[in-house]
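Section handout, structural biology tutorial.
Before the tutorial, make sure you can parse a SMILES string by hand: atoms, branches in parentheses, ring closures as digits. In the record below the ligand is zinc ion, and the chain has 243 residues. In the tutorial you will relate the predicted structure tokens back to the input. Do not try to memorize them.
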Amino acid sequence: MIGKILTDIRRFSLDMIAPRTCPCCGARLSETEDEICLRCLVSLPRTGYAGLRTPLRDFVDNGSGEPGFCAAWFFYDHTTDFADIIRSAKFDDRPAFARALGRLYARELLSAARVSGVPGHLSDVEILLPVPMHWSKLLGRGYNQSREIALGISEVTGIPVADNLIARKPHRTQSLQNASRRRDNLVGKLEAIRPGELDGAHIAIVDDVVTTGATVRECVRALSVSGARPASVGLIALARSAN
Ligand SMILES: [Zn+2]
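Predicted structure of the complex:
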């Protein structure tokens, strides 16, 4: 309670000096709004995957015999203002924003499960595995947005974030590649370390955008090559892009 009051006071003070604005519409945020204004949050083009078991097999055979799941919060269309949510999280030096998105999304997944009475994606996930970023890109960007999103989800759910996936070689930003290049761009560049830690666990790969599934497919391949034997692998992405 005291922590929340202190956070509100700090936020109010910062707002007086440098007003926070919504990345979608540019409106000034109130003290109670968490990085996106309420109006944009309500009109977010949701996929409806939040409370549903959308099979991961649409994207990848996860190799565990389980269908897994693919959760995506909203549709990503680069021609709309909502695309600025992803752009801001990735390119605007805003790790706190990416983390806030993870928190908002996790809260929505949990409340969808509560309202529907159907256990949601997060009910059986034991480990969050962010899609890794090569150190050379990390050096330039300063943070891995997928890891920040996972940390935001973790703050709400308590599910730990692990670092068993690593990028051995640099690759170009997936969202800027066409479908076949996406596949070639990543193959053999990710690696899973300490595979024994993942045996028997229900895992969720965490990414910012899912398009063709090339990234999650490469993550699953890396897990399989390392000898990891997770009980299931799912995907939690912030957005689903059609192209
Ligand atoms: Zn807005």
